[in-house]
Design goal:
Helices cover 49% and strands 12% of the residues. It has 17 helices and 11 strands. Helix 4 packs parallel to helix 6. It binds adenosine-5'-triphosphate and magnesium ion.
Length: 384
């Protein structure tokens, strides 16, 4: 029996298929790729559901039965050593519950990481801790990890999350090194997930780069409104609470279906009303405002760290909601910006900081709560 949650709208991590909305097609595509040893790249804006989708596929019965699946999040890594450490650690963590036999074999093959293996003096539990400086030859350790994957009892699936991070490593040849190992794998399939679309596309679709055309691509869009409406209604009904399609659609539309923001609002809304009550538009609007305002301090701190030109650009985009042609005379004049070249520079810097994002030539504030807050403070405001 799956775990029952008090609040069915999960806002961090993956729980089970019961609390996971739709993604039927995408799960099928990713699972089929995994079963057929085809490497995939999974791309979407932040918080759309990449990690959740991978976990959901790892939870599939056939995958669980027939594969060893590993999830390696490299967001916090800044060089090859750290990559190797995290990679080794994730395999260790996933396998340690299998006991001494697993650990023996792992450290026999990945001998260079053996110093990281310790037993907790109090509990006796196996742990993996290494000073990053202890990895002397990261390439050699990497080779050993790949050798272990290839010699594993079952075929392996390795999902590397936030893969675009490797482009920020100081090592020049990192893509070529990884590509060489990955290409040689016969027993291991990879999923490369990332949120920076351009960086990810450059890695996999520039003819001059080592990973060129080595994967099939899955671009994760928003969940379709109808699917999300029935998901929300099912969970409200199960708890004896009511919500109309109209209210759900209004919330869906204000976030353009962006998953984490939706989940966040429905999580609060679900908590706000009692059994037997209905979540009306007024209550939903209050929840939304409360949530957006709860981040106010954070937004103000973020804005305080920006230069004046960057701030002006952020306000201009926040006011517009979606802004195109931000270097045009009309836009520069309308928002009293200094010049079109300074507008361009500010926008580029805000994109790099991930404060703005750009889709199909339109700029918008990346954090949708921040976008709403800015439109309230500097623009036309928002209403459900
Ligand atoms: N299909 C889904 N049904 C319900 N909730 C979901 C679904 N997909 C994702 N979520 C929820 O949305 C949030 C964001 O999902 P997730 O962490 O998978 O996004 P992500 O694309 O990996 O984001 P990031 O790029 O920031 O790592 C999570 O809280 C998760 O619980
Ligand atoms: Mg993620």
């Amino acid at each position: 029996m799956d775990k029952q949650l008090r609040n069915p709208f999960v806002i961090s991590g993956y729980v089970s298929s019961e609390y996971f909305c739709d993604r039927v097609e995408e799960s099928k595509e990713l699972t089929v790729a995994m079963l057929n040893a085809r490497n995939m790249a999974l791309i979407s804006p932040r918080r759309m559901g990449k990690t959740g989708l991978i976990e959901h596929c790892f939870n599939n019965d056939e995958i669980r039965r027939e594969f060893n699946a590993f999830f390696v999040d490299i967001y916090a890594t800044g060089n090859l050593k750290e990559f190797v450490f995290i990679f080794g650690k994730q395999i260790f963590e996933a396998g340690k519950s299998k006991g001494a036999k697993f650990l023996d074999k792992f450290f026999n093959v990945v001998s260079s990481l053996r110093p990281a293996f310790k037993l907790d003096p109090v509990t006796g539990a196996p742990t993996f801790e290494i000073g990053i400086g202890d990895i002397e030859q990261p390439e050699y350790s990497l080779e050993q990890i790949f050798a272990w994957l290839e010699s594993s009892d079952k075929p392996c699936i390795v999902a590397i999350d936030e893969f675009q991070q490797i482009t920020k490593y100081p090592e020049k040849n990192i893509e070529a090194i990884l590509r060489t190992y990955i290409q040689r794998c016969k027993n291991t399939t990879f999923v490369f997930a990332g949120s920076q679309r351009h960086m990810m596309q450059n890695i996999f679709f520039s003819a001059s780069r080592p990973f060129y055309q080595s994967v099939s691509l899955l671009y994760l869009e928003a969940i379709a409104p109808d699917e999300y409406v029935s998901f929300v209604q099912r969970h409200f009904q199960k708890a004896g609470k009511t919500i109309s399609k109209e209210v759900i659609c209004r919330i869906y539309d204000i976030f353009e279906g962006h998953t984490w923001y939706l989940q966040n609002i429905f999580h609060r809304l679900f908590n706000t009303i009692e059994k037997g009550e209905e979540a009306t538009l007024t209550i939903a609007d209050q929840c939304l405002r409360y949530t957006v305002n709860s981040y106010k301090k954070l937004f103000q701190e973020t804005i305080n760290l920006l230069s004046e030109r960057q701030r002006e650009m952020l306000y201009a985009v926040g006011k517009a909601g979606k802004a195109t042609e931000i270097t045009s005379g009309a836009f520069v004049n309308k928002h009293a910006l200094v010049s079109s070249s300074s507008a361009q520079t500010a926008a580029r810097q805000l994109l790099e900081k991930e404060i703005l994002t750009k889709e199909d030539n339109a700029y918008m504030v990346y954090d949708r709560f921040m976008g709403l807050w800015l439109s309230d403070v500097y623009g036309m405001g928002y209403n459900l």
